[in-house]
Specification:
Keywords: Cell membrane, Membrane, Transmembrane, Transmembrane helix. It is found in: Cell membrane. It holds the Pfam family ArsP_1. InterPro entries: DUF318, UPF0718_permease. This protein starts with a helix and ends with a helix. Helices cover 76% and strands 0% of the residues. It has one domain. It is mainly α and 323 residues long. It is built from 16 helices and no strands.
C-alpha cells in the first residue's frame, strides 16, 4: 500500500519518469520516509506501553543486584528497547552511577542503546530483511556486552569525574500504579515526543540516501569499499566517526550504499561508528568521564565494530545474506 502511494505521488501527481535518476531518487525518498515513520510510530507505541510497567527504581535495582555478567546482558537488552542517543548520555550515565550500577554495566547500556534500539530494528528489518536485521541485533548487543565487560574489568571508576559520585538523589520514589488509560496516554505521548525529535534525522538521512541511490556511481563505491578491499571496513569506521547522527539518519544512507555495491560489513560498521563513536558524542561524554576513559572507550568499541564489520563481510561472501 505504501509503495502504491509513493507511485501515485511521484509518478502521477509529480509527473516524474520512473526510468530517470530523479524519478528513482524521489520515489526512494517518498517511499522510505512514509514507511519508516509509520512503522516507527507503531513500534514506539507498543514498546512504550511495555516500558510503562518498569519504573526507574526497578530498572536500577535489576542492574545493580545481578551477577556482573548477567547485568551486562540485561543492560544491553535494555539498551535495545530504549530509544536513547548520545544527547541522553550524560543524564543516563549520572543516574546509573548515582544509583550504584557498576561502571561496566552502565557502559553496556550506553554502547548498545544508540547502536541497536527499536528505531534501528524497525528500519533494519523493513529495509534490509530479517537476516541482516537479526545479525545486526546480535552483533550490536555483543559489542555492548563485551565492551562493558572489558571496561568494567579494567577498574576505571577513578576515571569518572568526581562530581558524578557526589550527585545526590531525592531517594527512590514508589512505583506509580498506572491505569490502562494512563499507560496508553503515556505511549501516545512517547510516540509524539520521539518522532518529533527524530523526524529531521529521518528526512536528512533518507534524503542523502536518495541522492546516493539515484546518482552515486556504483563502480566508484564498489572500488573503494567493495568486497575486494581489505581496508574497506577501516575506511567505513573512519568516515563514520566524524559524523553525528542516530540510527534513523544512518540506516537509509546504509541502504543506498548497500544497493550501490558497498560491502555489507563496511556499510554496517559505518553505521555503528556514526552512532556510537561520533566526535560530538565524545564531547558530551567528556562532561562525565576523563580523557583516559574516553580513549579506552573508543579503542574497545572501535575494535569491536571493526571486528563486526569484517565478520559481516566474511559471512556475506560465504552465504550471500545481502542478496
Amino acid at each position: 500500500m505504501i509503495e502504491s502511494l509513493a507511485d501515485l505521488v511521484v509518478y502521477n501527481w509529480m509527473g516524474l519518469d520512473a526510468a530517470t535518476r530523479l524519478g528513482e531518487s524521489v520515489h526512494f525518498f517518498v517511499y522510505d520516509v512514509t514507511k519508516i515513520l509509520v512503522l516507527l510510530s507503531i513500534m514506539i507505541f507498543f514498546i512504550s506501553l511495555i516500558r510503562s510497567f518498569f519504573s526507574p527504581e526497578k530498572t536500577s535495582q535489576v542492574l545493580s543486584h545481578k551477577n556482573k555478567y548477567v547485568g551486562n546482558f540485561v543492560a544491553s537488552v535494555m539498551g535495545v528497547v530504549s530509544p536513547f542517543c548520545s544527547c541522553s548520555t550524560v543524564p543516563i550515565f549520572i543516574g546509573f552511577v548515582e544509583a550504584g550500577v557498576p561502571l561496566g554495566v552502565t557502559f553496556s547500556f550506553l554502547i548498545t542503546s544508540p547502536i541497536v534500539n527499536e528505531i534501528a530494528l524497525v528500519m533494519l528489518y523493513s529495509l534490509f530483511g530479517w537476516k541482516i536485521g537479526t545479525l545486526y541485533l546480535v552483533s550490536g548487543m555483543a559489542v555492548g556486552i563485551i565492551g562493558g565487560i572489558v571496561i568494567g574489568a579494567l577498574g576505571l571508576e577513578d576515571e569518572v569525574e568526581e562530581y558524578v559520585y557526589q550527585v545526590e538523589s531525592d531517594g527512590p520514589s514508589e512505583e506509580e500504579k498506572m491505569t490502562w488509560e494512563e499507560r496508553i496516554n503515556y505511549a501516545k505521548a512517547e510516540v509524539k515526543d520521539i518522532v518529533s525529535r527524530i523526524w529531521k534525522y529521518v528526512i536528512i538521512g533518507i534524503g542523502i540516501g536518495a541522492i546516493i541511490h539515484g546518482y552515486a556511481p556504483a563502480e566508484l563505491l564498489a572500488k573503494y569499499a567493495g568486497q575486494g578491499n581489505p581496508w574497506a571496513v577501516l575506511m567505513g569506521v573512519g568516515f563514520g566517526i566524524p559524523l553525528y547522527s542516530n540510527a534513523a539518519g544512518t540506516i537509509p544512507i546504509a541502504e543506498a550504499l548497500l544497493n550501490k555495491g558497498v560491502a555489507l560489513g563496511t556499510t554496517l560498521s559505518f553505521m555503528m561508528a556514526t552512532v556510537a563513536l561520533s566526535l560530538p558524542q565524545m564531547v558530551i561524554l567528556r562532561k562525565v568521564i576523563k580523557p583516559k576513559l574516553i580513549a579506552i572507550f573508543i579503542a574497545v568499541v572501535g575494535s569491536a565494530i571493526v571486528g563486526v564489520g569484517y565478520m559481516f563481510n566474511f559471512v556475506d561472501v560465504a552465504f550471500n545474506i545481502a542478496m
